[in-house]
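Hey, I was hoping to borrow your eyes for a little while. There's a protein on my desk that I can't quite get my head around. The fold is given in discrete form, as structure tokens running alongside the sequence. I'd be grateful if you could look everything over and explain what you see. Here's the protein in full, and shout if anything looks odd to you:
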Amino acid sequence: MSFGGFRGLPTGASDDITPWKVDVPQETLDNLSTLLKATPLAPKTYENSLPDQKRTLGVRHDWISSTKSYWETVFDWRKQEVYINSFPHFKAHVEDGGLGKFDIHFVGLFSKRSDAIPVMLLHGWPGCFVEFLGILDRLRARYTPETLPYHLIVPSLPGYTFSSPPPIDKNINSDSAARIFHQLMTELGFKSYLIQGGDLGGRIGRVVAANYAACKAIHLNTGPMPPPNPAELKSEINKSEQEGLDRHMLFKEMGSAYAYAHATRPATMGFVLSSNPVALLAWVGEKYIDWTDEDPPMDTLLTCITLYWVTNCAATSLWSYRQFYGPGAESHGTKRWHINKPLGFSWFPKEITPVPKAWVETTGQLVFYRQHSHGGHFVALEQPDVLWKDVEDFIDIVKSEFR
């Protein structure tokens, strides 16, 4: 497959990085089909059948019923697999001093330009590499390997989809993942790079930026943190930002129980989410429709959930939550997260943790901040053109860091 001319690794890449292809065994897909058909739904209740299509008490019965039916009878994984495989995939063998060996899966578009800037794009939970394919699709249509101004690397986080799960005898956290991803960029032969991230990807990205000189700048679309000391604030919070903070308080009250369940009972949640695809659909699908500005296309949503099921990563992807939620969780205070490097931030109104510019300014050398009128938590999926325009504008500001 030619991948539109994109297929090779950059000069200087390690021999431990090899081309790879997504090929889910038919037996796995047949098993999924059997389980979907055999799984009964919970009965209709007041909570799952609220008037006016409200879903303030959880996922709706009518949504689960229609989505399960579509998954069984219409959704075509092989069609989605062909699209996924139209991008170059690779696996890198990464040795982490604390946790051992990992096979890290990633999608990559590599330029032949000597001045191309490496950009690593990091997803979170319950996301996956598919979130960024829309951006890659647009860039491969716009450029050739000879003209692309960037190297684009979209990894699967440890424990997610096609990357190795964490070891069963050692704990993994964001610091561990940061080491792994810095090592990945080193094995690709890059001496400097930029990170874009949201959700857990943004948290990992901040650790990378704080700990590794090779990471020259970072762009975020989420930035959870407690309110800074008012004396630290340099600018006012505008009306839209205050409305975002108010929505976040409602989310903390009504929508954050999942995070505490992941943090305090990840073993139990892993068994529940791995037991049946409809359970996974309810738990993960709810986030895709509640945390977005508009519901994502059904095929896109089911591609992401199918990936979680066929790779059996529902249990192995929960590791980050106990670091940030529950007893003994780390604070996201500004001292820990202050980064003396160029920082860009894109604000979207339906983000579950929409941080005002005045707060972001206390966490780093903010050189780019843009507020948008549409978009939510999965913004790379929802608004690929808008997000990438922000990243490109940010790169224009910081490109001197790469000379």
Observations:
- The two ends are 34 Å apart (CA to CA).
- The chain is about 40% helix and 15% strand.
- The chain has one domain: 1-403.
- The chain has a mean pLDDT of 95.
